[in-house]
Amino acid sequence: MALEEQTNLDKAIRLYVNRSRTGLTVRQICKQTGIPLHTLYKGLRELGLAIKPNKRVDKEKLNQAVELYLEKEELGLTVEDIVNKVGVSASVIYNELRDRGYKLKTCGRKFEQEDLEEAISLFLRKKELKLSGEAIAERTGVPRQTIYWHLNRRGLK
Fold first, then answer.
1. I need a labelling partner for 136 at 20 to 30 A (CA). Which of 11, 50, 77, 148 fits?
2. Nearest-CA neighbor of 149 among 123, 112, 110?
3. Domain ranges in the chain?
């Protein structure tokens, strides 16, 4: 990468990190610095920086949603009920609960984290080991789509 491109990438990363203060969108940052979107995201991943949308959630609504979630069994509510009542998405509620240290049950998951890590490791070496995605899924018990999803999420695919 040319020095000027690296300087522009560094500038884009700084703007990205401070985007809530500057009010710039990711697309505006890319246009201003001349860095393609995928290059910015790659640079962020390489630095281990979280790539999150800059959506503001009303803290009162979020706290209300978390309280309702924690009491949902006593109140006879489902997550969908809470989402409709409060107006905060389920993923935002789950992320907030995780951030607060709550352990969430994974519904329907039929494999352990170690199985997933093994599947990812095998997938990354599948050509060398001469394994198909289907064979890896069978061997580890982790569905193929789940493996692909996690690879994509980790930026490995």
1. 50
2. 123
3. 3-46, 59-99, 113-153
